[in-house]
Amino acid sequence: MNQLTQKIAVQYASKGVRANCVLPGLMNTPMIRGPLENAYGPGGIENMLRQREALVPMGKMGEAQDVAYAALYLASEEAKYVTGALVVVDGGLTCQFT
């Protein structure tokens, strides 16, 4: 997806089309809570959430709004000269592996 985004960005930049990619990390959303609520037994989901948060350098998982704000910026006039960007929204998680 990253390479496709950048290829599209280069191919269509002269036509005024911008292509960027938002890369979310570990997010605390109803999609991870709801389906997994009974999978870990009593209190298990809270333990799983604590383990995931411990992985993130910022100490907590992100929220859906964090990803939405990144997308909102990229869609805004303020990002009119941004194309081919891979915007990582993960609280520093991927920085640990570089």
Question: How would you explain this protein's 3D organization?
Answer:
The chain has 98 residues and is mainly alpha-helical. It has a single domain, classed as Rossmann fold. It contains 4 helices and 2 strands; from the N terminus they run αβαααβ. The chain has helices at 2-12, 30-36, 44-55, 64-75; strands at residues 21-24, 86-89. Strands 1-2 form a two-stranded parallel ribbon. The longest helix is centred in the middle third of the chain and has 12 residues, at 44-55. The two termini are 19 Å apart.
H and E order: HEHHHE
Q: Estimate what percentage of residues fall within beta strands.
A: 5-15%
Q: What is the count of helical runs?
A: 4
The CATH class label is: Alpha Beta
Gyration radius from CA atoms, angstroms: 17 Å
Mind telling me which CATH architecture this is?
Answer: 3-Layer(aba) Sandwich
Tally of strands: 2
What can be said about this structure in brief?
With 98 residues, the protein is mainly alpha-helical. The protein is built from four helices and two strands. The chain has helices spanning 2-12, 30-36, 44-55, 64-75, and strands at residues 21-24, 86-89.
Relevant terms:
98 residues; mainly alpha; Rossmann fold; two-stranded parallel ribbon; 4 helices; elongated
Layout: helices, strands, pairs:
Layout: H1 2-12, E1 21-24, H2 30-36, H3 44-55, H4 64-75, E2 86-89
Parallel strand pairs: 1-2
